[in-house]
Amino acid sequence: MNYKIIRYVIGKILSIEAAMLLLPVLVCIGYGEPFLKEFGIPILALLLCGFLLGYKEPSDMKMYAKEGYVIVALSWILVSLFGALPLFLSGYVPNYLDCVFEAVSGFTTTGATILDDIEALTHGLLFWRSFTHWVGGMGVLVFLLAVIPASSSSSFMHLMRAEVAGPTVGKISSKIRDTARTLYIIYFVLTFIEIFLLVCGGMPVFDAFIHSFGTAGTGGFSNHSASIGFYQNPYFEIVISVFMIIFSFNFNLFYLVLIGKIKDALRSEELHAFLIVIAVSVFGIALNIRSMYGSFGTSLRTSLFQVASIISTTGYATVNFDLWPTLSKIVLMTLMFIGGCAGSTAGGLKMSRVVILFKTTRREINRMIHPHSVQTVRFEGRPVEELTARSINLYFSVYIFIFVLSMLLVMFEKRDFLTLFSAVSACLNNVGPGFGDVGAICSYSALTPLTKLTLTFDMLFGRLELFPMLVLFSPSIWTKNRSKE
Amino acid sequence: MKIVIIGLGKVGRSLAKNLSDDGHDIVVIDSQPQLVYDAVNSMDIQGISGNGASFEIQKEAGVNEADLLIAATSSDEINILSCFLAKKLGTKNTIARIRNQEYEKQLRYLRSELGLSMAINPEKEVAREISRIIRFPNAMNIESFARRKIELIEYRITENNPIANMKLSDLYGAVRVKVLICAVLRKGKTYIPTGNFVLETGDIIHLTATPRNLELFFRNLGLYKTKAKNVMIVGASNMGYYLARDLTDAGMSVKIIDNDEERCQKMSEKLPKALVIVGDANDSDLMEEEGIANTDAFVSLTGMDETNIILAVYALKQNVSKVIAKVNRKPFADIAVSGNLIDTVVSTGTVTSNMILQYVRAMQNAVGRKVASVNKIIRGNVNALEFNVHEGCTLIDIPFKNLKIKDNTLVAGIVRKNGDIIIPDGNTSFSIGDDVVIVTTDNKLDDLNEIVR
Fold first, then answer.
1. B45 touches chain A (CB under 8 A)
2. What is the CATH number for B305?
């Protein structure tokens, strides 16, 4: 273990978070709100820690997979702990655990909230809360990779792999720094387009920023308790639906479009599967809820918004979908698990994993009928390497295991099964709202501390795709190989 | 520059590492997914698994917009085909590794018809390097610069060596020959020495001088090894063939030992002047019978690194004055050299990748850098850079003692316009038209004017 590089990179991350906290300070100044206590103290604390940890560059910059995992897991935990400070110091939420829940929910782009009265918060706090979505969506470390000097980045690929979602991570250019930059530029431009479209439609500028951050990171924090339903505006609903879907595409596809390979981008098998699942769900739910809304057009629009919101794991709501028929709720629940595409800001299992899982299962069944047959699983037009297929199977098993463990831990809560089941799946998949007592119009504030803690970890597990967190807690990582003499 | 490398063998990996550290955009292609996976994890490069000679894969790697394609797979045919395809797709320059002797004869044709920029035969290059070392047995290694005018000799200070424990400023007084010690490797650390530096036993030094002075230096020290006359080579491989051919052409008497009768037969057909012996080189009776005690130089070139090391150690025990072993695996080579087992170790991968690196850096130079060539010496820790002195140089005609030259940087040699070779001292200065060799640990130096503080 190269402890020095872990210390160094985490120091840099904390300094970057200090810089990010300056943005809400600007908002506070703009609205004439106090900021010294809620933002000043965290900024100073972060600068101090960042300086102490990161000022001395280690002589050995070598990093292996295990350092990558540990850095990612540790820095996400630390960034969340510090990111919770503004809310805590502002005095709106007296309980630090609640603040951490809210911060983790922000950075992991979950969007589950413990705030019952969101409108009471200052603009600065609301902005920070949503901005964590934006940064967390693409990744804090990917941001770091985009700004570090080129020379020191040769072994930083492990960081990227541990943070970016999906079974395999493709670099879009040969330098990791260029890749990280390109990703952030695409991300930035798309977000800006959405802000522009929302402002054009008449949304207040501040609200447009908040909701675009929430959409881009596929998070789901809003500055209104009623979420998007507050506006009752079909134009906003359609714009946000479309962008929620766009942000759950694989970002490599945008890069392909950017360099003129539109045909290659459109040929993506994951994209096709994703769009088919969306289309089928939208029409299915629209038919199912037709009687609840006046016209078929309205129910189609509502269904589109909700499907997009859930499959992209954003968690915005225009209506209280808790009141929908069971069929629709089951469909939505399934979509939670599927999630967006690999390499996007969305959570869930990821479409590509689902497709490969489905294909390998079919092959294994075929093998039972023809025990000596040799079949390759193909995905995106090429054979899936056995290593990838195996790691996806492993991922699925670990995922189920963690799900069951979380269910056991939240059982102490005296609530109905649907509430608890949906709370765990909404947090593990980074969706946000679930059903029942944690539904679209309710919050997580009433849950017991143990449940909140479990769900906080679930959110981190979900965003970092299980393994970095598991590696962090493996004893063999922290034992020294050679005893000191 | 954008560079595509096909084949992740020793050469491919070492090239990818060095070129990516130089700041180039690298895409590697190999048919083994695991190799690609490992390479992408440890270097800042892009990787694709697949057949590098396939159109689809090359397009995916962006060969059409690459500046250079290097085909270094183990198969000549794939290398040739890859380069051919890449050229058609629009790559500007292509380099292929071609080792089959039958193809080698048509290299000229291949180069012009397929537009190959460079064809490398690793065995031949290694053989050339070995024969250079055998001709000057004092050196562990020899690097040449400025169109082979200036040579840098790697030399180990052994026990009881008169120059051990000597201050560099006292060296001239003791030996009465002008030589310059450019770099010292001591216990894994590299130093660019100044006059106060004291040499120690076990140091590996890099020194330069005019060829005549070099010989004098070792003669005055009483350490001169005469040019080898009898050379024994173990292993009748391609490399053995090239080496034996070079050495017999230079008038040396060569014995080749191999235990494969068929290979020996072929060798003797191709090399009438050499003596070919069928037998096991591990058999010390045979070695004694063939007069190992009377040979001047011993080269072990079998396919096994371990055997080569053991044979070399054995030859040293028999008081052979110059012993060279081919050791392809870098960790083995490091152990053999740092453990003082053998002086000189050559490896196919290093020689090949160094040649290609020099080519790439020269190419880059054409695109506007001021360095004429870059060589990595002392296991890649030190750069030996070549510059041409143009009018833009601000250091012209100032004696070096008046220049504040940076730490860890040293002017190692100057070739004047009229061909004179100068080993600089405090009174030397640059003049326009000089070719200058600078030795430095600074990786970013790329302008002659930057050598001063």
1. yes
2. 3.40.50.720
